[in-house]
Design a protein that fits this description.
The chain is of the alpha/beta class and 316 residues long. The protein has a single domain, classed as Metallo-dependent phosphatases (Purple Acid Phosphatase, chain A, domain 2, 4-Layer Sandwich). 27% of the residues lie in helices and 24% in strands. The radius of gyration is 18 Å and the shape is globular.
Amino acid sequence: MKQSRRQFVRTLFVATQAAAVGAIFPRQLFAADAQAGGLNFLVFGDWGREGQKEQLDVAAQMGLAAKAISAKFVISVGDNFYEHGVKSADDPQWQTSFENIYTAPALQIPWHVVLGNHDYHGDVEAQIAYAKLNKRWTMPARYYTRTEKIDAQTTVEFFCLDTTPMKVSDDKVVSAILKNMPAPAAQVAWLEQALAASKAQWKIIVAHHPVYSGGEHGDTDYIIKNILPLLEKYGVQAYFNGHDHDLQHLQAGKVNLFCSGAGSKVRVSKSTEHTKFVKGSTPGFVTVALSAEKLDVRMLDALGQLLYTTSVPRHA
């Protein structure tokens, strides 16, 4: 489906405005040296709103940031399509919320995707099927792992989870989205087996629902009880999620928790006992520069302004 004239004009306007502030990226974003074995990527979630202004603003800045750091891929932490997911692999929203929005050349890279609760209101299998139609969209299963090389001696393994069944189980909700939903206990067992078998020096969780959060939805009890102990046991350094529509950095023991759910519509957030940084009511996204010894995280808003930066050492 082609963009409407209104969408085209809006996209052009946002791109023009983004170009005006794009010069800040080389100064504010630090990229890992790819030739020396670094890995640069973007993380964001809660985005698919058919060209809503905030979505377009974030998309424009993501394009600039991806170019500035030579991003290798994008990670989407779920709620890819509002309000009710997609109905099929040829649903019009693939064009109106994805293809026609993230058009920057630097964003024509693999998108590694997990599912959110709004995606479950549609056909989640359609999102898996779309990966066969578009090489940019990567989702081999509802939960999966993938490994990237950082340098000759160092790798990172991403453990991509499907946390909606955990939240539904946690809330004891009877809903239409329970249909064909994988059992949380089976996924927890799979995760522990995968973590125990991993030889990667860096272990990163990608999920939709948070562990702890100062956002509207707050903590996820099932994940705190069943997933967090595994992260601590197997030395996971970072957990990236969405669900709450904000930008957050929290810490649980040695595990750093990053919320990047400000891809379009945002909400107010607050600090908690685990909070190191929180920014609500501001659309934005995260850039990551991963090297052998550290993970550098930058949080940016929809104007390209740097809001927060932190480094996570490989060995806490």
